[in-house]
What we know:
The complex is a heterotetramer, with two copies of chain A (225 residues) and two copies of chain C (211 residues).
Chain A: H1 28-41, H2 48-56, H3 60-65, H4 68-82, H5 88-92, H6 109-118, E1 137-140, E2 164-174, H7 177-180, E3 189-197, H8 198-202, E4 212-218, E5 222-224
Antiparallel strand pairs in A: 1-2, 1-5, 2-3, 3-4
Helix pairs in contact in A: 1-4, 2-4
Chain C: H1 21-34, H2 40-53, H3 56-68, H4 70-78, H5 80-85, E1 96-101, E2 106-111, H6 120-123, H7 133-138, H8 143-149, E3 159-164, E4 169-174, H9 186-192
Parallel strand pairs in C: 1-4, 2-3
Amino acid sequence: MTRIHDMGGRFGDGAIAGRSGGRVFEERWHARALALTLAAGALGHWNIDMSRHSRECLPPKDYQRFSYYEKWLAALADLLVRHGLVTCGELSDPERSPACPAHQKILRPAHVATVLGRGLTYTRPVSGAAKFANGAMVRTRRHTANPLVIGGHTRLPAYACGRRGRIVGCHGAQVLPDSNAHGLGEAPEWLYSVEFAAAELWGPDTENPDDTMVLDAFESYLEAV
Amino acid sequence: MTRIHDMGGRFGDGAIAGRSGGRVFEERWHARALALTLAAGALGHWNIDMSRHSRECLPPKDYQRFSYYEKWLAALADLLVRHGLVTCGELSDPERSPACPAHQKILRPAHVATVLGRGLTYTRPVSGAAKFANGAMVRTRRHTANPLVIGGHTRLPAYACGRRGRIVGCHGAQVLPDSNAHGLGEAPEWLYSVEFAAAELWGPDTENPDDTMVLDAFESYLEAV
Amino acid sequence: MSEFDRHPGGRPPHSHLPPDPALRVMALETLLVRKGLIDPSALDEIADHYANRVGPRNGAIVVAKSWLDPSFRESLLRDATGTVSSLGFTGRQGEHIVAVENTPDIHNIVVCTLCSCYPWTLLGLPPAWYKSDAYRSRTIREPRSVLAEFGVNLLQSQKVRVWDSTAEVRYLVVPMRPDGTEGMTEDQLAGIIARDCMIGTALPRLPEPGQ
Amino acid sequence: MSEFDRHPGGRPPHSHLPPDPALRVMALETLLVRKGLIDPSALDEIADHYANRVGPRNGAIVVAKSWLDPSFRESLLRDATGTVSSLGFTGRQGEHIVAVENTPDIHNIVVCTLCSCYPWTLLGLPPAWYKSDAYRSRTIREPRSVLAEFGVNLLQSQKVRVWDSTAEVRYLVVPMRPDGTEGMTEDQLAGIIARDCMIGTALPRLPEPGQ
């Protein structure tokens, strides 16, 4: 078990609601929550893996009751406090906070289109060749746990731990979230697409044995079989 | 992944609240919820495994936000409807329901002490000897899934799937929840206590490698290694 | 989706009850009485049974006897169900009892990760913390951290053994008898064996001198 | 407990914000503006960017081109990131794109079980259902049941391949070109390629005659 966010394969969630779509922002505050998160992220105090981990670390009761943008907001508040940018006292009473000069990396409207349109590549150079070739059989590691930090961030879902699959693609070497989420460096690794037979993942709960599931797995998530 | 109730090892739940104890029933309605559940159970329409499964099948959003006796109540309401004893319409407007004669197994106050004090043994005779001896090494099955019913009840927690442990006790043959929860018969099996090294279960998240965890596992949960 | 996850109209039956929990119980009781399924005075009896008739004193007597009587102890560890039955401690959620003994080498602690299984016949109903998500999720993975929150400091030499109550067997932790209890009666000993000592989240303590 | 699960006073920082979500955003915005961390007019720009400037039309153009131009299709399947960049579709949550093509043998569908990863540059922000627990938990295990809820009936011969977006790679499903679209322009084709076709939860449909 990792955390509440790691829900792939969970039973009990019922039918998928709102399949017909809807507006980009269903409420005005949704747009504001998204924009606040991106603008605060542009200050450079944390990276995307830290953002994800902050959402994952919401208490399960909050994670389950919050709507999507409520999770974003709560995780943003937690990040701001963790990184020393605001205090809990200021969160409960914003008016009490003194007015401060602008942060040197504050995002100005003129730069928004550039920043959002540029993106951030996660590909990094690594020394050494990829360990696994296309078609190679691999097994994912037996525990979903982050090996660097107890209770830490990882992108290996629990449903795919200790399972045999086949390499079906390599995306070059990319930043390792397990390290980057904790400020331990980017530690880039080769990133693969690994395909699993449905029955390997789901056993007796398999819906159709002809189907497959593919996930992206970093090299340290995998061992040769 | 099974369901939201299968939370052993999950991160994120924070400190344990209310460690100092408190009254047996913190609210008057707690006592009433407990009593209603036991009294309705005495009617004999379902067994304890069906009760547990009904709680497990609460939608995750409800399971996480409900207090303990709220889960009991909700699961009781779901059981009553599933077994045809009440309707959803009656749940929302009890006064509309016609007054009915007493159920033939209605629990009367004079029988409460006897019923509660008697209990229900889960031991059953089986043909054949236990497969595993004390000290034998076993491995739990690879998937927590119930092999009889998709999304069905099981008592093998996700954290203990596909793990090696040692038999440290046998409790005789007992009713198999995986079958009994679905009205598929009692299907008794030998029941063992299986002890695991902490590191086998938790890998890099192990708190102390000297520690062990023991769970009770039915014979079909186990294979020899 | 499993059939249990399908609900006509997308709403599980329980969502038709009123939102306030106390009103929810009342609505359900009203309905079940009208339907002839419940006798309300039986509810009073059940509540009284668990509020007043069973509780951790039962378990404390069992432990105190095991401290005083080596043959009782031996019998308890060999066949707890039979042994506690002979004291009249039988019933729901206590049909299959196993006693696990703390020693200088091993400290035992009990949890039910999947629900809240607990030896009702010996300890009464479980406390709220035992049923909490935090206790259920954490105890099985980090028992020492949980024990520290409860103020339990283990001997350097002690391993922890966590019992996850995954079947109908209910576990009673038999704590070690503390020094300074020589000459105490069964009743006096039972008085220092608090409920949590028999779950594994506390150790028996002598009353402070003068109390 | 991990250090991330420890909070002084037992309350995580976000619990200090007001309970109503709209007020919560306002409080946070007020605070961050006072602290010099946010320029409120940048927030308007960001909202406008995702409300009006990027959306599923981008992806539809990519798919339409791949239907019309075999060399574009080949390039898209070999190097989608480079190919869509050449159309100006670059940016956040679209840095590494992989296009996966439906065939008579394989139907592709995309999910992010761990959060809600999605190709923003090609499809805009994800719809609410894509971010729902039900879609995240069920699609990876029972894609056919999910597809049936979306009204998608697969060919008898088709296998399902579910892509779980677990890293920074974003997946674009390239649906099969339906019969009856011969002679349609790129613009007309893009018009029948709805967002969900590129997630894998719909199939392109010709407009009803007369519409």
